[in-house]
Amino acid sequence: MISELIRKTPARYPRLDTVLMVEDFIKEHDGEFRKKKLWEAMPKKIMYQTFSIIIDYLLISGKISVDSEGKIGWIFYPKEAETRLKQAHLFWRG
Hints:
single chain; globular; Arc Repressor Mutant, subunit A; 5 helices; two-stranded antiparallel ribbon; 2 strands
């Protein structure tokens, strides 16, 4: 899956500050927007192709998900997961 992403990407990759801006915006507007509306609502305008690369990366890395309506939500909460796994009634089966 990652190799497909690499083949589709242009020679230029998104800058870190752009990726972080998209991450922060998705966290703030968790589950409110579909992909195109999310792009249109971004605080700074970025190329749609760049935005799509960032969304693909966040999906592959498990930081966001897309629900049945196509809305994008933030799902990456490592500290909360670690806290919950320490609770006695919740445990991880390996």
